[in-house]
């Protein structure tokens, strides 16, 4: 049945992949942009709303006009800023922005909110692949701790509101068109410049999510999923010592530098060392079993190859 869908974060990498899928399914789509000029970057939609999710009054008016059945949150604050500033902005959007969206969605008569979260927020303990029952690392240090606590606030706002059905999608590390892993992106530049090393003694696990699979999961949970948190990741969590050299070869970059843990701690910021050495992977078992969802790109290997034109059409 066609729905009225309101998409916040419509101009981001996942939003760009999601909008045409929603239209193909016959849904009426309203895209939220913060500035009117950003509407030019959108594909075909049924309506455009201009408001900042941090402006509760303007956001409430936008949703009242759109009258959505479902509100989809795909917000990120990493565009055109460094990692530290991106984490700060994204934390604000996840915390205050999501709470504003949920409140406005309830007032506008929506029955469901689907929100982007992060599988990278799990507490990195043990060597198991983590499921949705694993704790979030809310007492992590520094800016990362602020980011994880914002994830906790986001999920609490979406999942505990008694007046709406809430679904949280915990994406892995996003890659694909429009992300930092695409040509010209931040990770692409780091690897090309031999500025993203590996650590010999320890290897963190990365669970990847192609933006097409993130969009596909958001589409799948519009109506069918029970209110809950779901990991949206591929089938192959990978150590950085495996995926990074493979990625480097695919983009014709130099082989990554290998550091000792002591060298890494002396040369790199804390968050980068954590990601290189401690981050744990996640399982998509809940989403696969409850909805029959399958990633279009089961492994980052094929997804990276397709991104750089190395996979058969």
From TrEMBL:
This is Nucleoside-diphosphate-sugar epimerase. Residues 5-232 form the NAD-dependent epimerase/dehydratase domain. Signal peptide: none annotated. One of its GO terms (molecular function) is aldehyde dehydrogenase (NAD+) activity. It comes from Halosaccharopolyspora lacisalsi. One of its GO terms (cellular component) is cytoplasm.
